[in-house]
Design a protein that fits this description.
Layout (H helix, E strand, L loop, with lengths): L23 H7 L4 E5 L2 E6 L2 H9 L3 E2 L27 H10 L4 H25 L3 E2 H6 L1 H11 L6 H11 L6 H24 L5 H10 L6 H31 L2 H9 L3 H15 L7 E4 L3 E3 L2 E3 L4 E4 L1 H5 L33 H18 L4 E2 L21 E3 L1
Parallel strand pairs: 2-8
Antiparallel strand pairs: 1-2, 3-5, 4-10, 5-8, 6-7, 9-10
Helix pairs in contact: 4-14, 6-10, 7-8, 8-10, 9-10, 10-14, 11-14, 12-14
Length: 398
């Protein structure tokens, strides 16, 4: 069987209910074994059941060191600096610990007043400019872009450049050559930035890595640059799409919207954010693994060297994980959801992402209590063509 005979992964979401995963994922969960799929031109196993994903994300026989492929966003030339999402322990843990200091609960909580100030300032600008407005460009994208720029020490004035690069890197439809060119441009930019930070340090993450680990030889300039790109990319791309798609989800569920808007209880806000993260699961095409040795997963023997793709949207909607998974219920406990992955490779920036969502969503709904779509729902363009799901634009008025 060639890859052209296999179903493509990720499968298209149902246009009638674009918040839900592809309908065929239910069949993949219910049938015994794993499902062979075509992922970026490769024949791999799709892992779709919650417990199977847990096993694949935690068993030491499964490796995160997936060889870069020409169709993969991480591919650039013949050599790539090591990046922590594509490393196994103990090397992964060593590099990740170097980065963790800037994403602790204490550090993120200290940022909350600044994030709230940003949110209000972007809403002030929207109001001053008048509606309708594209919520993605006016609000959802600027907040996480500015926050991650401040954390890394990347000039926010260059945000349009790295957003343009990210759009190419995260696309599922552009050519291999276009992705290589885009990664080459951002890698060159960040190498130059690392050189500037050596000469003119600040108190942000890139300068800290240079000061603490470059002189000791624990990190190279290229490794600092490439891992900074991973953080820059993930730091605005995922949260921006969650703000946009989360807002749209709430607009389509007015009772839930009112609950988020009208509460002062941080536990209710936190619960709503967790349920939106689970319900939408926008990282639908990012978590790849490879078997280091033969292993049985879900009744299928996966041979050493075979690839696997984690079907996180399907796992988060698995009835074996929680009851009535296709219903949006912000009052239930969804502890253990996989929107940020699972195991030691869980998203490094998840605490920051949660804080941004817990501030951005209720602030927007309280400041603009009459927020509504400016176009029919059917005209919204969803990001099925991208590695991170969401909406391309979200025209709103208030």
């Amino acid at each position: 069987m060639t890859t052209t005979d296999l179903p493509a992964f990720p499968a298209d979401r149902d246009a009638r209910c674009p918040f839900d995963p592809a309908p065929e994922y239910q069949e993949w969960r219910q049938k015994s074994g794993l499902r062979k799929v075509d992922w970026q031109g490769r024949e791999v196993w799709a892992v779709s059941r919650y417990e199977d994903v847990k096993l694949a994300m935690t068993d030491p026989r499964i490796s995160a060191e997936v060889a870069p492929q020409p169709g993969n966003a991480e591919y650039h030339g013949d050599a790539m600096p090591k990046i922590f999402p594509r490393m196994d322990d103990p090397e992964h843990a060593v590099l990740r610990r170097m980065l963790t200091k800037d994403f602790t609960v204490k550090r993120v909580n200290a940022l909350r007043p600044e994030i709230e100030k940003m949110a209000n300032e972007f809403i002030d600008t929207m109001i001053a400019n008048g509606g309708p407005a594209d919520l993605v460009q006016s609000y959802a994208l600027p907040i996480p872009s500015l926050v991650i720029s401040l954390l890394l020490g990347v000039p926010y004035s260059d945000h349009r450049f790295f957003q343009e690069i990210t759009a190419v890197v995260m696309s599922r439809t552009v050519s291999v050559e276009e992705k290589q060119q885009a990664i080459g441009r951002i890698f060159g930019y960040l190498n130059e930035l690392v050189a500037r930070k050596e000469a003119e340090p600040d108190d942000a993450l890139i300068s800290r890595l240079i000061h603490e680990y470059l002189a000791t030889g624990e990190l190279t300039r290229q490794t600092i640059a490439m891992n900074s790109f991973i953080l820059l990319n993930a730091g605005h791309e995922t949260t921006a799409n969650m703000i946009g798609l989360g807002t749209l989800t709430l607009l389509q569920n007015p009772d839930t919207l009112a609950r988020v808007r009208d509460t002062e209880d941080p536990k209710v806000i936190s619960g709503a954010v967790e349920e939106l993260l689970r319900y939408l699961t926008i990282a639908h095409n990012l978590v790849a693994r490879v078997a280091k040795e033969d292993i049985e997963i879900g009744g299928t023997l996966v041979r050493a060297g075979e690839g696997l793709i984690m079907n996180l949207p399907a796992a988060n909607r698995d009835p074996a994980f929680l009851d009535d998974p296709d219903t949006l219920d912000v009052d239930r406990n969804v502890r253990g959801h996989m929107a940020f992955g699972y195991g030691v490779h869980q998203c490094l920036g998840q605490t920051l992402a949660r804080a941004e969502l817990e501030i951005a969503l209720p602030t927007l709904l309280r400041r603009l209590p009459n927020l509504r779509l400016a176009v029919p729902f059917e005209e919204i363009r969803f990001r099925g063509d991208m590695n991170v799901y969401g909406v391309h634009e979200l025209p709103v008025e208030w």
